[in-house]
Design goal:
By secondary structure, the chain is α/β, with parallel strands linked by helices. It has four domains: about 120 residues, no CATH class; about 300 residues, no CATH class; about 200 residues, Alpha-Beta Plaits, CATH 3.30.70; about 70 residues, no CATH class. About 45% of the residues lie in helices and about 20% in strands. The protein has 24 helices and 27 strands. The strands form six sheets. Strands 19, 20, 21, 22, 23, 24, 25, 26 and 27 form a nine-stranded mixed sheet that branches. Strands 1, 2, 3, 6, 7, 15 and 16 form a seven-stranded mixed sheet that branches. Helix 4 packs parallel to helix 7 and helix 12 crosses helix 13. The longest helix is centred in the middle third of the chain and has 50 residues. The chain starts with a helix and ends with a strand.
Amino acid sequence: MNGFVIRSIHILFPLVLLVAGLFVRIEEPRWFQQWQMWVFDSLNVLHPRVYDPGIGVRIVDIDDDTLEKVGQWPWPRTKIAELIYRLKQAGAAVVAFDIVFSESDRTSPKNIVELWPQVPEFKDIRDRVREMPDHDEQLAQFIKQLGGVVTGFALTNAGAPRIPTQRGNFAFSGPDARPFVQTYVGAVANLSVLSEAADGNGNFNMLPESDGIVRRVPMLVGFKVDDNAENNRLYPALSVEALRVAQNAKTMIIKTAGGSDEASFGGARTGLVKIKIGQFVVPTDELGRVWVHYSGHRDERYVSASDVLDEKVDKSLLEGHVVLVGTSAAGLLDLRSSPLDKVLPGVEVHAEVIEQILQKDFLKRPDYALAIEASYIVGVGLLLILLLPRLGALWCAAIGAATVAISFGGSWYAYVDEQLLIDPIYPSVAVLAVYLSGSLISYARTEAEKRQVRSAFAQYLSPALVEQLAAEPERLQLGGETREMTFLFCDVRGFTTISETFKSNPHGLTRLINRLLTPLTNVILDNRGTIDKYMGDCIMAFWNAPLDDETHAADACESALKMYVALEKLNKEREREATEEGVEFLPLNVGIGINTGECVVGNMGSDQRFDYSVLGDPVNLAARLEGQSKNYGVGVVLGSETVKQVDGKYATLELDLIAVKGKTEAVDIYCLHGDAARANSPEFLDHKESHDAMVAAFRQQKWDEAEALIRESRKKSDGELGEFYDLYEERIADYRAAPPPKDWDGVFIATTK
C-alpha cells in the first residue's frame, strides 16, 4: 500500500505542476508577460541588430550644446525654417520632426506687439508690425516649397479632441483595421497651417511596456472622432510616414485577418498582419505593432543641429537620408528606455524602426509560438514523469538537460537566422519544476541540505570573504569574535563648498568622489586594510580582521601618510586640468581619525541579510577623532592606544586631553606628524621636547610659560602646526579672563563632532 502511495505521488505531484505550468503559459498573466519581455531583451542584448552607418537614416539632434549656442527652446519658427532649408540644401530626402508645434510662435510680430505698452503713441507702429509676415505662415511656406517634410504629433486620452491632419491614404486587404489598433480621444497636434503644408504627418506614440521599456512601437493608431466607430481615423507612425514621403507613395496598404473561424490554439490570428509602404512590407502583430530590433545607441546616427545651422556638416552624412529632427537635451524630457540602453532620446527609437525596415530585419513573434512552447512543456514534462521512477534522478537530469539545450539552441537559431522570438526559458523552467518535484520526493533530505547551502552562500555581500566562508561555513552565523583592531575614518573637508560648484553637474561630482576614493582605497588595501563601507565622501576601514595583522596600528598609520601622498598627486592633476579649462581650482583635503581597541567583528545584520562588519566603542571614537582633525588644524588624529603601539615608529605629538562629544571619559589624542625617519630626526625630537613641555605647562595653568613654549615650538615646527598653536593661545587668553577651577584636570570638553 505504501509503495502504491509513493508511486502515485511520484506521478501525481509532478503532473499537477505540469498542468499548472501549462495553464500559466496559455493564460499569460502579467508577471509572465514581463518574464518573456526579459527573455526577449536578453536575446536582443546578446545579438543586437547589425548597425549599418550607410543605411540612410540620420538624427539631427537639438542637444544641450545646440541650446547653448542657438538659445532656449522653443525656437522661433524662422529658425526652424532655416534648419529645414539647411537640411534640404544638404540633400536630405525627408525631414521628419519628432517635435510638435502646437502653439503659435510667440516671436511672431502679431504676438510680440501684444507685449508692448498699450499707449496711443505706439498705435501706428503696432498696426504696421501686425501687418508683417507671420512666422508660422512663413514656416509653412518653407515646408511647402521645399517639400519632403513630415510633421509629428502625439495622441492622448486626455485634453481637447483636436483632430490631426491626415496626409496619406490607406487601403485595406481584409477587414477594417480600425477596430484592432490602439485608439485615442485627444491629440497634441501641430498648427493646421504647418501640418497641411507638410507632405506627411505622423504620430510618435510609443506605448512603453509596464516596466517603462519601449520594445514594440505601433505603426498605426486610431483617433475617435465621434461615437460612430466607422468615423474613426487612422494615423501612421512618424517612422513609416517618413518612409512613405521618401518614396513619394500616396497610399499605405494594410493587410488584416479576422473572423473567429481563423483564430485557434496556436493558429491564425485576428487583427493586423502587415503594412506595405511603397516597396517596403512591414510585418506587425495583431495590434499593428512592430518589435524593435535594436542595434543600440550609436553616435554615428547623430548630427548636432547647431552644426547643421552653421553649415559645418559633411553633406554626405545627410544626402539622400531620412533625417529625423529630435532632441537629446535632458531638459526637454524626450527620453526613453530600451533593452540595450537605460536612457536614450525618443527620436532614436524612430530611427531604429526606420533602419530595420530599410534593412528588412524584423523581429517576429509568430502565431505558432504558443503551440511550440506548450507542446515542449507537455511532451518533455510527461516524458520525465514517466521516466523518473524508472531511471532515477541522474539519468532524467541528463535527458532534461539535453532537451533544455535543444530548446535554447533552437530558440537561438530561430532568433539569429529567422528573427523569430521563441521563449526557451519558461518552458525549460516548467520542465525543470516537474523534474525537481519528482526528484525531491525521493531525495528530500539531500536536496534540502543542498538548498540550505546554496541559500547560505547567497547571503554574501563581500566577495573577498567568499573563499573563507566556503571553507568555514560556521562563519555564516550571526555575531562574531572579539579582537583588538585599528580603525580609520577619512572624510573630505569642505565638501559642501565643493559640491555647490557641481549643482548643475551631479555626474561630475560623482566622478570627482570616485576619482578621490579610488587611490585612497588602493592605499588602504595595499597596506592590508579592509574597507568596511563608504558613506558619501567618507571611508571607514579596519585592520586585523578577517585576516590576522600583528602590525595593524602601524599599517593604519602608514596608510594615512600614503593617503596624503596620493591626495597631493590627485590635487596636482586636478590643478593642471583646471588651469587648462580656465576654471577655479578647489583643492581636495581630508581629515583622518585612527584609533585602536577591542571590538566585536563578524557577520552583522539580520537573518535575511548580513555582512562582515565591526561594533564597539573604539570604532565610534575613531569617527570622533576624524572630526577633531579640523578643530586642531592637523591631518591625522590618533587615539592613545594607537600611539602606544607605534611609539618610536612614527612621529607623533600630543594634542590634548579631550572628552569627545557623546563621551564623558577623557582620552589623550595625538597627531601623526611623520614616518619613522622623521620620528628619529634631531629636529623633530627637539620640537617634540618643547611641544610636550608646552602641553604640560598648559595643564598646570602656567600661562606665561606655556605661551613662551608656544612661540618656541612655532619656530621649530616650520609653521606646520600654526592652527594648533593658535588654538592654545586662544584658550590661554580665555582662561586668563575666566580662570578654570583649582581642581581643573586639563580636560577639554568637545561640543562638536
